[in-house]
Design brief:
Length: 333
């Protein structure tokens, strides 16, 4: 979160600083940028957009996936889902969340909301068809781990910040298309030096112009890569929280091997979850956009994947299950 704040500060007040340098040597009647209005306005817009996205985030996610709320179960699978959610809510010591079903054949699940009193759990039709009762229970336990840890609040806030950066980047791009005059203002100021110190003014103007050009280039590049930087920060948080939710799901069910089995089935699904888009991908139990990165290890997968390597998650859960069986006397010492 500190990284997000610092990045916003650079984008806003850094632009003010560059503009102030560019207009410092302008003639007395020309514009001199002394008040950081750009940083203040940008910060206010970012805060407003983030607050709106945070308040409406859960409803937007559920609406975007086409999920329908499960109020009156219509068949055995839906009744089983309601029973499992109620059991896991008791085990996690949280209020029962509202239950939603996403009309998608790919197995997946996610939780959203702001806190345990305002939480939602959604599963796809494919997950209901694929998982046994124990596996479904383990998946719901994982999602309620996110609810109990307030991960849903954290990830909603991060998604809102990413959306704010995207919105501001688009607006800044429109401004920069017609803003080539910034460099010309700085250049004009450098050429208006007095006659007595012409040589020193020329050197100082050249040095100042070079500094402005470098800062401006870095600032523009920062705007271009802003969505990528913010998304990488959000994904880094998401990957770490998945391991904790796996452990809590195993704790609630006392059956880590069931979650390992469910993750193996989800990982083997051929098609990505079409109903869940990129903006809410980090909320899901598995990457809904395809498993090409989460099936690999290494720095590239660690940096770009929405989830930690599935093989690593399964291996940790199997290790928990082996230790539990050994402790209960099911395996030789």
């Amino acid at each position: 979160m500190i990284g997000f704040v610092l990045f916003f500060a650079w984008l806003g007040f850094g632009g003010d600083y560059i503009f102030a340098l560019a207009t410092a040597d302008a003639p007395p009647g020309a514009y001199h940028h002394t008040f950081p209005w750009f940083g203040l306005v940008l910060s206010a817009i970012a805060i407003g957009v983030a607050q709106y996205a945070y308040r409406t985030g859960p409803q937007k996610v559920l609406w975007a996936t086409g999920a329908r709320e499960l109020i009156d179960p219509g068949d055995d699978r839906e009744r089983q889902l309601v029973n499992v959610v109620e059991e896991m809510a008791i085990a996690a010591d949280v209020p029962r969340p509202r239950i939603w079903i996403v009309p998608d054949g790919d197995p997946n699940a996610f939780a959203t909301g702001h806190d345990p009193q305002d939480s939602h759990v959604a599963v796809t039709e494919g997950l209901l068809a694929l998982c046994s009762r124990d596996e479904l229970q383990a998946v719901i336990g994982h999602e309620l781990g996110h609810v109990k840890n307030l991960d849903v609040r954290l990830m909603t806030t991060l998604a809102a910040l990413v959306g704010a950066v995207l919105l501001m980047r688009d607006g800044m791009g429109r401004m920069l298309r017609g803003g080539a005059r910034l460099g010309s203002v700085g250049g004009g100021g450098g050429g208006g030096g007095g006659g007595g110190g012409r040589g020193g003014g020329r050197k100082g103007g050249a040095a100042g112009g070079a500094l402005i050009a470098v800062l401006l280039a870095v600032w523009v590049i920062s705007w271009i890569i802003a969505p990528l930087v913010t998304q990488l920060l959000a994904l880094a948080v998401s990957r770490k929280r998945e391991y904790l939710a796996d452990a809590m799901g195993a704790q609630f069910t006392r059956n880590p091997l069931a979650l390992a089995s469910a993750l193996q089935k989800i990982e083997s699904a051929a098609a990505p979850t079409a109903a869940i888009k990129r903006g809410s991908a980090h909320l899901c139990i598995a990457d809904p956009l395809g498993r090409r990165l989460t099936s690999r290890e290494g720095w590239l997968a660690d940096a770009l994947a929405t989830h930690p390597p599935m093989a690593m998650r399964i291996s940790r859960l199997k290790g928990m299950g082996y230790a539990q069986l050994k402790k209960e006397g099911g395996l030789p010492a």
